[in-house]
Design a protein that fits this description.
The protein has 106 residues and is mostly helical. Helix content is 48%, strand content 9%.
């Protein structure tokens, strides 16, 4: 959360401590890192919205574009943010909420 305040970081860290043990969190990241659904993407037949942060520090931006490109008719939205967590003061949070509202209205 590069643009978070100290209070937001502390709050997020406390939430993580309360919701998962270190062992469970490590197992979760190990398991999800091994999942590859690329071959299933062309089979998706529902409206799909893919949003990805341009400055994501964990998943390269181009992978978000590629994911959307493999899903027939998917809409891709690039967000100008670096945080994985939605932060109220970040303008990209408002954009994300607007895009979700528009998507759900259709």
């Amino acid at each position: 959360m590069p643009s978070a305040t100290k209070e937001q970081i502390d709050s997020f860290n406390e939430l993580q401590r309360k919701t998962a043990s270190a062992e469970s969190a490590a197992r979760y990241f190990e398991a999800t890192g091994a999942i590859d659904v690329v071959v299933l993407l062309p089979k998706i037949r529902v409206p799909t919205l893919v949003m990805h942060a341009r400055a994501d520090g964990h998943v390269p931006f181009e992978l978000g574009r590629q994911l959307a490109a493999e899903i027939p008719g998917a809409k891709f939205v690039a967000l100008q943010r670096s945080n994985d967590v939605l932060l109220e003061h970040n303008p990209a949070t408002q954009r994300l909420l607007e895009e979700v509202s528009l998507f759900l209205a259709n």
